[in-house]
Amino acid sequence: MNNSMEKLHEECAVFGVSVTSEEAVGITYNGLLSMQHRGQEGAGIAAMPMHGNGIVCHKDVGLVGEVFTEKVIAKLPASNLAVGHNRYSTTGSNTRQNVQPFVTEFLTGRIATVHNGNVVNAKTLKKQLENKGLDFAATSDSEVISSLIAYQTILKGNIIEGTIAAVRELEGAFSLIIMCGDHKLIAVRDPNGFRPLCIGTNQYGCVVASESCALENCGFEMLRDVRPGEIIVIEDGRIIEERMYAESRERGVCIFEYVYFARSDSVIDGLSVYEARCNMGRMLAKEHPVDADVVCGIPDSGLEAAMGYAEESGLPLVQGFAKNRYIGRSFIFPTQAQRENAVKMKMNPLRYNVKGKRIILVDDSIVRGTTAAKIVSSMRNAGAKEVHMRISAPPFLHTCHFGTDIDDEANLIANHLSIDEICKKIGADTLGFISLDGLEKACGKCSLQFCTGCFDGNYGIPVSEYSKQDLEG
User: Fold this and answer.
1) Distance CA 452, CA 212 (A)
2) Strand order in 184-189's β-sheet?
């Protein structure tokens, strides 16, 4: 994990579209913009011309709007079929070679693949493919997946059967969209359902995306989630095949999608992210009440939990911070003192609302405690009488093997300090984390069971024989 980071990041967003018009590239661009929160290090789009089976791909490091200028978009073909990807690297290097989509040419065709998640046996699979004569240009598990699909397609003589054979060899998290040379779009979700994937439709065709907010923003109505262990084939804007290639496993969907990763207007596996976060706040108020004057949410993912806490506790909800929305990842801090004060540069306390008050601050997580300490300090400097921290996730104790950048348990403050010691270190008057049971109750409307491995070590599949550092998207 990057030592400059306090917030966790999710590995990426995937998007694919099959329509009867020639607007696939524009729709994909808008879909990626809608899911920029899932990855800010790289973006790519691969498109197939209406007539022909070639694939044109453009990708680079940077935000969607930086990678896809008007000039770049104008050079992409008029297309009814496209896939796109936003990337956030975890331990893998942030280079153009690792940005998706991956376009793989083989004897009988070509595919473009986009992937969200982390395949824990990718290193083993890569060695097997190298022994068969395949070459690799990147250091990503996603390239391994694309090559494996191509290899199995040659053996099976059919892209659908080849894809099924390939994904049955994968262990770990994968939500995949594959664009094929025969103008098909294939969507696949791993048997655990670790990462979200959903389908939307309108009169012009179908889209597949990591989050439902992208469907709606592009003018498509949510049809349903792709089921864990399911493959869906789309052609000419309509679903032509739906098949379970594996039995759904007992648990999988990442509960942290609801806490932090997903946009609040998304619905994942039947549960509104907004509703889940409000429920977390209500549960926090029940588990960790405190005598205070006002409740403040820390932007952005702490805001809904703060609303729930305020409703349950009967305390007023006030805006605690003014956020500078124009400071991005490239903001320059020329001195060490400014770098240490970066939190205040991006998010400044509203003195009018907090001065002389006993404040309950609600946030989504504490990783190392560095950011939390700065936020508490800024509240006190703004005149807050007391500062009580409430966290809508349990303490992080374990690494994640499926696409979240918790790469070393030694980096997690909860593995070194007790709750009281963390409270003292960040300078709060009191500190309360939601219980794992409370979090699961808050997300009770989800149609799937959860992976809670980062909190309790219960991952849903064996991971002890694999290293998170081997290959990641």
Assistant:
1) 23
2) 102-106, 109-116, 175-180, 184-189, 230-235, 238-244
What per-residue confidence (pLDDT) applies to 91? 43
Q: In the CATH hierarchy, which top-level class contains the domain 12-251?
A: alpha beta
Give me the pLDDT at residue 301, please: 84
> Is 339 in contact with 333 (CB distance < 8 Å)?
yes
Residue whose C-alpha is closest to residue 146's, from 121, 126, 172:
126
For 133-179, how does the pLDDT look when each residue is reduced to its tens digit (9 = 90+)?
888 888 888 999 999 999 999 999 999 999 999 999 999 999 999 99
Residue 93 has pLDDT above 70, yes or no: no
Residue-level pLDDT at 357: 97
Residue 454 appears among annotated catalytic residues? no
Domain boundaries, the chain: 12-251, 274-324+332-451
- Sort strands 175-180 and 184-189 into parallel, antiparallel or unpaired: antiparallel
pLDDT, the chain, mean: 90
Q: Which of 38-42, 94-98, 455-459 has the lowest mean pLDDT?
A: 94-98
Mean pLDDT of 43-49: 96
The answer to whether the pTM exceeds 0.70 is yes
Distance between CA atoms of residues 246 and 15, nearest Å: 23
Report yes or no: 41 and 55 within 8 Å, Cβ to Cβ: no
Q: What is the pLDDT of residues 427-457, one digit of tens each?
A: 999 999 999 999 999 999 999 999 999 999 8
Question: Residues 12, 198, 213, 278: which is the catalytic one?
Answer: 12
Q: How far apart are CA 15 and CA 109, in angstroms?
A: 22
CATH fold, domain 274-324+332-451, is Rossmann fold (3.40.50)
